[in-house]
Amino acid sequence: MSVSFSHVEPPSEVSRLRARVARLRGSLEWAADAISPKIRERILASVDRCEDRLDLGIEWTIVALAGGTGSGKSSLFNALSGSQLAEVGVSRPTTAHASAATWGGKAEALLDWVGVEASRRVEGHSALNTGDARLSGLVLLDLPDHDSVSKANRDLVDRVVPRADLLLWVVDPQKYADNALHAHYLQTVADYGMPSAMVLNHVDRLARSDADAIMFDLHRLLEDKGIGAVPVLMTSARTGAGVDSLRGAIAVAVERRTVAAEAVRAELAAVGGMLAKALAKASDPVMPNFASFVDGLSRAAGVHARAEAAASVAGGTPGPVPTVSKLTAAAVHPVRDLWLDEATAGMPRSWRRVLARVIPHARTIASVVNEALEHSTWPVFDAVIAGRFSKPKPNLAVEQAFIEHGAAVITGAVGEEIVGPTETMHQSYRALDELSTLSLEDD
Ligand SMILES: Nc1nc2c(ncn2[C@@H]2O[C@H](COP(=O)(O)OP(=O)(O)O)[C@@H](O)[C@H]2O)c(=O)[nH]1
Ligand SMILES: [Mg+2]
């Protein structure tokens, strides 16, 4: 019988992304102390957001209209949704809210998560709109003004924008050159690689040549930020010019059903870039030689001395065989330090501190090893004591058996607590490192 794997479904995009988010979270938990709190918080916020977004269903596509006061966000929202939900020409700094129109359902959980009040939700439709079916799955948001005088409004924008899958940045021809106004948007898109488009609105107020000049400038602005691929559309919410094209562009994105996943991917890639800096990778972590670690402790604990004495007795020279193990914290320190150095070679210093906190202290190692050595049953010990060996020279087999026994006892006593955390740390580091270098395409 031939075996075929062709029936095995490739893992879905969502489960791949989920697995990646889970790896990121798991690694971060472990590496928490090795990464600066600021970066850690930023990454954790992204992890939370990506997890939530994947849970809420990526078949929905959240498209947000954002931009400065008077650019025409609310007018475009109404034109696209065929509603009058958004208040046009109203700037009410203290009572602003986000509005939402949904196509093909109510997306309630999603809108709760985005933070749109129940009274600010409407189902998108318009008798005039052809092609509404193509918008099924769209969640369109009208946001407060990005440059609002009210901090509450700006905070709302800052909270909602990262939750959108596709950002439509609406630009007013009179304010488009205000770099400060766009800096935040450009930075967000550049930093997060967020799917996005620019919408130059109010084109009815522009002569054709002026519109062309502004388009040229906007493209240059995007180029300068390294996001030249972001498309720029022209609309007039007043005359309706370009609104169908905008709707068509949105429909293409919604129909692909991948924009939400792309946004999550982009965010994970952005987080990866941040991690890459935080990891400051110089070389791959390697597991130090545990046998050398054990040997160091064994010598310091007097196992070798005991083995030699036993070999001598077994070889026919009567004498005492030490029975008490005297490993001290002071003797453990250099052995432990060497382990820490080797385990974290090439990694930022912070990782050594983390590992130093996780593996047992020198004091603990000393007492655990002493205890274990004393309570172990040494090989051929009775025979040695009874002098039943009578070779004229030290019995190397006995010496070897003692050393091996000591190594096994020490390994049993502390091996797991030394090797385990070191391995976990390396895995975390590797996972983070892998996530930091993954491009948007692989997984
Ligand atoms: N001439 C013209 N006026 C527009 C256009 N879009 C919006 N407006 C007007 O500009 C003002 C602000 O529009 P609004 O949609 O509230 O902008 P928002 O602050 O970005 O939400 C209102 O008086 C609109 O009627 C447009 O394309 N052309
Ligand atoms: Mg508005």
List keywords for this structure.
single chain, 443 residues, alpha/beta, Rossmann fold, 7-stranded mixed β-sheet, binds guanosine-5'-diphosphate, binds magnesium ion
Helical content band = 40-55%
Low-confidence stretches: 1-9, 439-443
Largest sheet strand order: 3-2-4-1-5-6-7
What small molecules does this complex bind?
guanosine-5'-diphosphate, magnesium ion
User: What class, by secondary structure content?
Assistant: alpha/beta
Largest sheet: 7 strands, mixed
Q: What number is the mean pLDDT?
A: 86
How many helical elements? 16
CATH architectural label of the largest domain: 3-Layer(aba) Sandwich
Backbone shape: rod-shaped
Instruction: Determine Rg (CA atoms, Å).
Output: 33 Å
Number of domains: 2
From the N-terminal CA to the C-terminal CA, the straight-line distance is 32 Å
**In total, how many beta strands?**
7
| Superfamily (CATH H level) name of the largest domain | P-loop containing nucleotide triphosphate hydrolases
Q: What fold name goes in the CATH topology slot of the largest domain?
A: Rossmann fold
CATH class value of the largest domain: Alpha Beta
The topology string of helices and strands comes to: HHEHEHEEHEHEHEHHHHHHHHH
Strand content: 5-15%
